[in-house]
Amino acid sequence: MTHLGSTSPSPVTIGARRPIVAAERPATVSAGTVLRGAMPPARRFWWTLAAGFASEASAVALLAVSAWLIVRASEQPPVLYLSAAVVGVRFFAISRAVFRYLERLTGHDAALRQLASTRAELVRRLVPLAPDGLARTRRGSVLGALVDDVDDLQNLPLRVVQPLAASALVAVGAVVLVAFVWWPAALTLLACLAMAALVATLWGWAAGARAERSIAPLRARLADAVLDHLGSLDVLSAFGAEEQSRARIAAADAALRRAVVRRAGAQAGTAALVSLLAGAASIAALTAAAPGIASGALGGPWLAVVVLVPMAVFEVFAAVPLAAASWRQVRASAERIASAVPAESPAALVHEHVAPTGVAPEFGDGIRLRGAAVRWPGTSVSAGSAAVPSLHDIDLDIRPGQRVLVMGSSGAGKTTLAHALVRFLETDGDYTIGGRSVHDLAGDDVRLTVGLCEQQPMLFDEDIRQNLLFARETATDAELEAVLARVGLGSWLRERGGLDARVGERGALVSGGQAQRIALARALLRGFPVLVLDEPTAGVDPAASDLLLADLLGAVRGDQAVLLISHVAVPEALVDRVVRIEDGRILA
Questions:
Q1: For the whole model, what pTM was predicted?
Q2: Which pairing describes strands 450-453 and 403-407: parallel, antiparallel, or unpaired?
Q3: Could you give the dihedral angle defined by the CA atoms of residues 356, 360, 364 and 367, in that order, rounded to the nearest 10 degrees?
Q4: Strand order from edge to edge, sheet including 585-586
Q5: What are 283-328's pLDDT values in tens digits?
Q6: Which distant-in-sequence residues (6+ apart) come within 8 Å of 298 by Cβ?
Q7: DSSP secondary-structure letter at 67?
Q8: Residues contacting 13, CB < 8 A, separation 6+
Q9: What's the angle, vertex CA 405, arms to CA 404 and CA 410, rounded to 5?
Q10: Are 394 and 373 in contact (CB under 8 A)?
């Protein structure tokens, strides 16, 4: 981002500054699209399916062969009759572990590769919306979508598709195996499996579905509460509202904990039901096999296979109810991701149709706006009535070297103008830089000429050097110290111990005025021909605001243009021209 020293407006300050006429609801990506994107390609994932089936089938075969071997050995036949079964036991014991390892290795490799692609795609869709397209989105919701919800998507291939596919194939194979031994027992096994699938899934849905669907929103709610508390701790303490904020965090945490406990209880109940039905299947198989034992048609070793195979099958089948629970959680996460990512960028944002060149457009004779109109995302034209843009009928010129002050009350459209100049917001009408229309330029290229310092500068939890270097990474320490001296921070830098001093999370270790000066130093280091300063004294003591403005404007080169935005008057000697905005229009 080249609006050095800026940050997206916080949700707390949005409502008072942006007029809403009719809610614009851009179409969102469907949850199905998100889920399809979370599945690894078949060429990579089929190895996982094959290894998973082989591992589960080996487990069932191991129990079947072991049961036959133990009972047959008790009859004391010649060892030759047992050698094949002994080899089978060893083979299936080893193959089960080998295939399980291959399943985990290939499955996690495929899922994590796809997870990285999914997160990158989500970021790719969100970046064009920043900052203004995300201004009304809660930070916890975006954080949850990018981290927790995307992480949950890996459960789709690993805990839903693979277990269901392996369990279904193994269950069918086990029924066929038992049918070859004694078909009435196969029918009882099939009936018990069908009943277990129905009962366990319905129980899990009734007992845990609501909790599973609520976990992701509750997690975002907790993240919102923590972020709001930490981000506004000084204000909360000053007004004695810290306890209420802590109570809000505790309530969100308790709600999330209850949902997780309900989900765990539902899963435990499902596991208990499956265990009961596994025992019932073995008893039913024994009952069905009794006539064969009585008639001599079914020998002892095969009776052991008929009775014990259902237990192995149900051990594999236990993954089915868990897969159903994981599916509900994955589906809820996909729906949240889909709701956070619009299929199309809002009309008020800039829709790029020109590739960035990396070359700043020539400033020439300056910036020229004629009949310009700008809207914030979230405003639209409703049926039967026209929505009034945040800015309309704007005529403005900014010449090289000029200091232009834009004044107006809160909500008049000053910040809208700043974001339109740096091409965060689309401008209807004429907007040219050096005679070239910005509609023929990439937004990134425009922001090489026009730089924005917002009223809440974005400082990273790094040292001063790193907070400046991303503006121009080739700058030397001497150049960094020189630009800090230009903005009046030379002595302060020496007192702090030099460029290695840290500024804290979002500039917590510096004052508001110092943060503004660091942001301006960053912009000066970049060398923008035009600087837009949006309320640079907003967080500064009124008694020191004029001095700060004098230092900021004095640090700018004579050929650089400055658009200073303020809702209060500034000393006339600091600016060349004053423009007043009221109700989205420039007053004559």
A1: 0.64
A2: unpaired
A3: 70
A4: 450-453, 530-534, 561-566, 403-407, 577-582, 585-586
A5: 888 888 888 888 888 888 898 998 889 888 888 888 888 888 788 8
A6: 181, 182, 289, 292, 306
A7: H
A8: none
A9: 145
A10: yes
